[in-house]
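Q: Sequence in, structure out?
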Amino acid sequence: MPPIETIFKWTGVVLVFLAVAFAMGVAIDRGWLTPAMRVAGGLALGAGFLGAGLRIHSSRPVFGQTVEGAGLAIGYMSFYAGHQLFGVFTYPISFTGMLAITTLAFVLAFRQSDSALAVIGFLGGLVTPLILADGGPSGVGGGTGDSLVGLAAYTGLLVAATIAVYLKEGWGSLMGASVVGGSAVVILMWSLAGHAGPYTPDRLAIQLIIVLVTAGWWLATVWRSRSGLSVAVADHSIDNLLRPLFEYVELRAVLVLPLWGLVLSYALWRPDDLVIGGATLAVAVLVALVGFVVRGRGEPVLETTHYVSAAITGAGGLALVLSGPVLFVVMAAYVLALILAAELVDSPVFGAVAYTGGFAVLSVLVVRLLIGVTGISPITAGDLAADLTVILMTLGVAAFVAMPTDVRAAVGGLGYLAGLAWFYEAFQGVPDGQAAISAGWATLGAAALVGAAMVKSGSMDDRRARKSVAVTGLVTIGVVIVKLFLVDLAGVDVLWRIGLFLGTGGLLLVLAYFFPTLWRRIEGEDPAVTAPPA
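A: Exactly. Output:
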């Protein structure tokens, strides 16, 4: 549709509204119209717009729908004014009239395949009990039992109706209006109920609305996508304007709505960390199960999005349930499980998320080691055990999990450096601890050299990677030899010095004996690792 037509159309609607408002103002000031006449005039004007729109629709559908929408809006305002401003209508009459307009809007939307009319009907129906209640939103419940339970039941039915419409028509604009509008009503009811409290019927009703707005819409988008149906965009100026927002809306729903439901639930109940953490983990499991169900339907992107959402949600749940060194170890094991799961589902996107989590864990490890090495805060035995466990996991991932060479190099390098730092962290303040540091570093260097030659999984098949690992081990051993003479010779007790020199010397002799065979394997010749003939 040409932009000039849209500009003229909406400008004309606004000008007509203003003209009617000016005329009403003059008539009221001069006493020409009684309250009943004013309300009747508004209803007549709305009906006139609606009739004109219906007549125009056959030849100009989009233009006709715009006029119809204006007529519906005028009808809503007339019933509102008839009750709240002029006292012409009682609450039940105004409520019934506005509900009838909502029903009419949905009927027209179905007949004309126009999502804009459905959105107008939903929003008008949503605010009906709020604006008609005595005292405005703070007096919610005037016609629904004077309690939040009535408002929750009404809102729930309205949201459920929009979900049903979406399953049939797939209108993305209606989904957005329902999620945003439903969330707004939840927040309003939460503010009226108080920010925390016992398990009252009001709060349980609000929780049901939260589940419907979040989980209901999430599963609705999944169901429609699983059925091979995409989001529908009606040929309407508003829908066309918002068209980019409707692309991949089901993926956004999977990523956002479960977390949004947890946020709203937490705000409603304010439970302790253990309770909300357990609920978060349960939601993560549910999201992952839905992704597994979707897997068999030929929807790889939707499946992967569920796994990503479950991974993020699960990490948040663990952070709420656990703390300290235990959280660090469990989070590292969780990330390792995600990496292995990414290999099973063969999803690069999920793999990228898993590896991002892995590097986040390694970053935390680096910070912890820096704190320990610099002595900023005391290190407990639990901290040392947690750090060592994560380091061993990191080295195991680098050695045995299939991954790109550059990623392997980064993971293995960080794990190796972390191992060196761990020995320093653990023994720097211990008497004769320098001997233990040297022994640990020498052991790591020898392990790197032998591991480069012995590991036969796909992780070490690249010759350059094997040589890099071996050279790293050799450099470490070289540093240990220098340290023996510059630090340990004078700074370690004589008995420790004897044992350190004897152990390091014996290790070097063993490595020297097997080195030719080890290096041939590193170079790719792959001979049997046996001692050369005397």
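Residues 141-146 have pLDDT under 50 and may be disordered.
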